[in-house]
Amino acid sequence: MEPLITSSTKKGERSAFLLLTVALFPILAIALVVIFGFVVWFWQMFVSGPPGPPRG
After folding, report:
1. Which of 1, 2, 15, 24 has its CA 20 to 30 A from that of 31?
2. CB atoms closer than 10 angstroms to residue 48
């Protein structure tokens, strides 16, 4: 026997879907880009130096 799907269940699923697609995923995408940028910036400051022609 299948469980009943009520209108409150559908409403909760819809609000969860909207929360994920409108708020959470864009925020996570921006956060990942920012974190990657900081990792590259710190790597260049402390390890490899700025990009450019090789010293020689």
Report:
1. 15
2. 9
Q: How many C-beta atoms surround the C-beta of residue 34 within 10 A?
A: 10
Reported as a single tens digit per residue, the pLDDT across 19-54 is 989 999 999 999 999 999 999 999 988 888 777 787
In sign, the C-alpha dihedral spanning 13, 14, 17, 22 is: negative
- Distance between CA 7 and CA 9 in Å, rounded? 5
CA distance 8 to 14: 10
DSSP string, 14-54: HHHHHIIIIIIHHHHHHHHHHHHHHHHHHHIIIII-SSSSP
